[in-house]
# Entry
Amino acid sequence: MANSYTDLQSVERLLLLIGTIAKYPGVGRLEAASKDTQKSHDSLQELLEFTQKFAKDLNLKIPTWSKYTIQKDLKTLRNYGLLPKAPYKWGYYFGEGAMNYQELQIALNALQAQAKYQRDPNVDKVYQNLIRRFFGANPKDKDTYPIRTQLDRVIVHTDPEEMMASGQYRGTLFEKLDALEVAIIDGQALELYRARNPYNSNKVRYEKVYPLQLIYSDIAWYILFETCQDGHFSISRLDRFSDHLKGLNLDKRGMRSQRKRLETAHKLVEAGWGLNLGSKDSQRKEIADNLDLIEIKVRFFPEVIGFILEGEKRHPTQKIQKGKGQNGELSYVDYTVKLPERSIGEFCRWVYRFMGNAQFIYPENLAIQHQEFAHSIIQRYSPDK
# Structure
């Protein structure tokens, strides 16, 4: 160690500084978080005050050194690789230790939910490892209590080991998650094999794609990708692909290009309703803002009005208008939204959930279709059938 740390007092001072940064990740910017961040903030003074507080908590003699001594100690930590050379504009922390205990609890809750309900095998391994590191073999209930969770459950097998144990093994893309995630980050083109297609059995085939993102939605994991030959974006169920994954001899696009294409794909997701991103031709027109949208108006009745009114941000184009009865009571609400044609089917299926409490006002073809479905239901329940 350098000569300036040969005496006990200097060593204790350095250890207190290390302990402070470990206990209060983000120190040096914590006070600024609740104030106007445009104003000047003395990060060294804050670090000094927190170090003195840490010493007091440990019943140690409160240090009397100045913030300039702290600055010298920070330089020492950088020289020994404990802190990187880059400036800490948002506070000091060691390596990946950027979270305090409350932030860690929130992150663990999110990991636990994804491992338990979305059945992500990689996340489950990470979660189990973290629990053992932080809390030991027998964690206390209070340390791992799931304050937050998400209950959307996957309906298919995702863990290859679990599938083998239950005698239901079939090779799916879940076998290659590690390689798939690396390909997403690197912008590596892949050859995948679509082994199942319940909507079109003729479209079981090899596909050359740039994978962009893994998405969990409602009941399953999906992969968002862009085809190599024509740049067509699609979202498909992950378990419908086999475990065939082959890297293609094409230039890697890199993370920057991947992020740009991902943003374009998500504009399609946000403009639509559901996961259908449309055909190649309609997609190009939509990206170029040359696609006419279809305006749909649905009237919802009293039994579900409260639920409809709660959804203030279901879609960026939506408009909700309240309808009053003869006595001024709320008798219906009209829900209007503009959607690309690719999303009509998924939107209609959402409306159908409300059974007799919904009525299509326009376009006319959707109103007629809804009426025909209603007649079909009546016939199925007819005693004469």
